[in-house]
Amino acid sequence: MDQVLEKLKQGILQFQTEVYPPNAEKYKKAATEPQQPSTLIVTCADSRIDPELITQSGPGEIFVTRNIGNLVPAYGEMMGGVSAVIEYAVSALKVRHIAVCGHSDCGAMKALLSPASLESLASVKNWMRNAEAALSVADSLAPAKEATAERLKRLTEENVLLQIQHLRTHPSVAGAIARKELTLSGWVYDIGAGQVRISEDGERAFHPVTARATKA
Fold first, then answer.
1. Which of 29, 62, 123, 205 matches a 20 to 30 Å C-alpha distance to 140?
2. Farthest CA pair distance, the chain
3. Which residues have C-beta within 8 Å of that of residue 6, sequence separation ≥ 6?
4. What are the sequence ranges of the domains in the chain?
């Protein structure tokens, strides 16, 4: 017996018997109406991140794309799935906001700090080229003898900021921003603390989301 698959099946049964019934109308509505998500979230493929749970979003409310390191290749550099998702979200779904969400203890950022760890992972090594500039910036801003944990935190933030810059190179994003139809933000999710810090309005600093910080 495949124990992993059986555990997944048990989760499906729990969803069908406990989660779906009280929300049946919401799911039926989502199934019969075109999706109209307000936001595209670009986040890491890390299995510890659940964008819907973190934002308490329901079916059809957020559009999500995930990849190693929450990277956004600059337009024309690596045209593929991420570029297609961005174009579709902005031009077809008309999302009004895009958030790039990094996170604590990110394996991709650790790999940037230890390039040798990628020698046996050729595809991953090539993909991580999209974050190399973040490492250069993080190292240039680092104080002397910076602790490893602080260096990782700094790199995680700089990577999010870099990917926002890359987002702006995409024609669909640039046009929507110019028309004031789209805004961008950068997030860092602390898995252990359950905290999200956000950089918005072009700021470099990341501020924790608190009841006082949220706007009506």
1. 123
2. 58
3. none
4. 1-33, 37-208
